Amino acid sequence: MVMTEEREAARVNHDAAMPVYRQLAAILRDQIASGHLAAGRVIPTEKVLMEVHDLGRDSVRKALALLREAQLIESVPGRGTFVTENGQALALEQAKGQ
Amino acid sequence: MVMTEEREAARVNHDAAMPVYRQLAAILRDQIASGHLAAGRVIPTEKVLMEVHDLGRDSVRKALALLREAQLIESVPGRGTFVTENGQALALEQAKGQ
DNA sequence: CAGCATTTGTACGTATGTATG
DNA sequence: ACATACATACGTACAAATGCT
């Protein structure tokens, strides 16, 4: 049996107590902390996140807003959303505390 | 002619360049800074703000979210939205810088 | 240069859930 | 039980910025 670095991509649970937008924020934060999403042009588009997690745009944008407030990511209209310079470091810090 | 302390209540301009939710946030912030909205149970309900400024709930909630981030207000489900302890002081600080 | 597709931003509406009084 | 008020979550439409053709 071959062990790989791959894991099941975390998914939002629509029935969980935690709001889906917080779940998505946590998932993305962990992916940033783990380096799975690295600096540069990384975060999938809102459209992709909507499709992958079966969410409305509202929830996706709320999740990204949380990460923006935490200065893990930055968005640029017409281009996309990026992990900030020290995004991974910040995400690691925050992941520790939780 | 009698001078009063009353002034025209500032209103959102739907045709301005600045997004209406930022306009509303600025209006409320100034009202807090001026003491027109004091600590305690102050901020009008979302419903009232929607009607007074002819805005959708989205815009009203975005405006309040900005003030929450700035720690000027706090909201409690079922009760309402309140100016924080040091809300006026904070609002004054921010009003200076703008 | 114009035109087009992509992507984020703003703004509206609606429905339902949760907390308070 | 009920009304009020904020929270979550879905949807739509259009605007603005970017990059490509």
TrEMBL record, chains A, B:
Record SUPFAM superfamilies:
Winged helix' DNA-binding domain
Tell me where in this chain the HTH gntR-type domain is found. Answer: 18-86
What GO MF terms are annotated?
DNA binding; DNA-binding transcription factor activity
Q: Which GO terms describe its biological process?
A: negative regulation of DNA-templated transcription
Q: Which UniProt keywords apply?
A: DNA-binding, Transcription, Transcription regulation
Domain of life assignment: Bacteria
Q: Which residues form the signal peptide?
A: none
Which Pfam families does its entry note? Answer: GntR
Q: Does the keyword Transcription regulation apply?
A: yes
| Name under which the protein is recorded | Winged helix-turn-helix transcriptional regulator
Recite the lineage of the species: Bacteria, Bacillati, Actinomycetota, Actinomycetes, Streptosporangiales
